[in-house]
Sequence to fold (207 residues):
Amino acid sequence: MPDLAVLAVFIPTFFFVSITPGMCMTLAMTLGMSIGVRRTLWMMLGELVGVALVAIAAVMGVASVMLNYPDAFAILKWLGGAYLAYIGVNMWRSKGKMAIIEGQQTDSAISNYTLISQGFITAIANPKGWAFMISLLPPFISVDKAVAPQLFWLLSIIMVTESVSMLAYASGGKSLRMFLSRGDNIKLMNRIAGSLMIGVGFWLALG
Fold:
């Protein structure tokens, strides 16, 4: 386990970074608005797995391999961004499985696998996430101690803070949906959610 002094610095630092609006948090808010918090948990699962892999790669030095193959990384970013933007356009037009349609339930329209994939791709193709993990995480690892236990505890903290942050954003999206639905503004809800999704797609592709 890392020293308490290290944890005292790491916990607030990472929580501040996690709670700051970003691609994953915006995606969580968008899905919370369109399909609800409960279904958004599947996206969060994929995102957490992706974040964990990025963190492990940053510590183990695998990140340098990806940096040596920027073309492959760029293709992944573009494909992920294009897919999210495509979903966003359909939502904006009140079409597609994730769009909110009056009198219909969107809760089961999109598969759990698709939601997991969205979260995973967004996490591993996020260049800012890689940059943060590479620059921040390794300095908290002491070379004088076993790496595995230290990484386990730091990853545990990362998973908890990410989960809390995404839940907060997803709940905010659900609250926004409930607020707008009082005036039967279904089309407005779709356009807000769709615009956010398109923004995440461009953010991912061009980041």
Q: What stands out?
A: The two ends are 34 Å apart (CA to CA).
